[in-house]
Amino acid sequence: MISLAGRDILHSWGKFVFTGIGLGLLIGVTLVMAGVYRGMVDDGKALLDNSGADLWVVQKDTLGPYAESSSLNDDIYRGVLAMPGVLGAANVTYLTMQVRKGTQDVRTMVVGIAPGKIGITPGWPPYLVAGRQMTRGHYEAVADIASGFALGERIQIRRNTFTVVGLTRRMVSSSGDPMVFVALKDAQEAQFLKDNDAIWQSRRRTEANPAFNRPSVPGLLDAVIASQSSNAFVNAVLVTLEPGHSADEVAESVRRWKRLTVYTRAEMEEILIGKLIATSSKQIAMFLVILAVVSAAIVAFIIYTLTMDKIREIAVLKLIGTRNRIIASMILQQALALGVIGFVVGKITAAFAAPLFPKYVLLTSTDTITGFVAVLLICVLSSLVAIRMALKVDPAEAIGG
Asked: Residue ranges per domain, the chain?
């Protein structure tokens, strides 16, 4: 019966090959979309791993610093550092923005890291693929290689120009934007400091307000003006723990005594994956369902067409006493052969197309196996219509034809 199915496939090999290629392209798109979702999850986990933190201290009642805005005074880390079980604490800022590269803008996440050393101070990029780490307190940057920046290149962040002194890899935000690391003071200026025109306008409004010109409030006007040019804020404090201390216990202690929101690694991962990319994952899931339905329709249509083309041959087989099980097996084998051809084409297409996507696409062996089983199942279900029709063929049609 395998020979019978094979002979029929060879008889209409052109239709099989072109249908398999079309089905394979759909399967390739499906595998890539599953890879996009896996890549988003991997980006989120890489973001947490590369931060080097065990705890994230953020503004009270926020989901910061990645899912929501968070603002803390930059001296809070001192109090956190004095808490039992805390090994290290460092300020950090995150700002997604367009960084100017010559005449072009590159969307990046600018990360402000506190002075320290790699492997000791959390927030620093854990490794470099080229160049060196920052050694100056201003105007040096380390960029992810996905940004397209090169060593020695000068980039513009707000009003200041930075020189790229190092390149790293897989340092990205949860949305896949490459990171650019700069000194904390430079990042604070970029994120929190108002430009000169805004400060000038704010001073004019302050001076025009009679409430600040009363003698009963000495020095208040100067204090307000000074606060308008202050940038003593950060988005979060990254905390590392001493060996043997529970992250949950230390986090609860910081919450109680510092009245701040603290997230452990597990809680931050839930925010990134369960909340930040939840909508994207639902969209991808809907596309996968649509592609599966379309693939099933294509397989069902081509198998049905091939079966209709050999109605007389099926009638002859029935006339000479061929069992229904054998006829059904022939149609099922053709459907499975079509699915195998489509999956092979799809897997090759996904492997070559994945590196071309702007977002990170992670193709896993688990998704490949699951996809292969799903394709075979779709082919089996799609062949049922053709099998049902073939089994209803009257043997008399062989004589009547």
From this structure: 2-43+279-400, 60-193+231-259
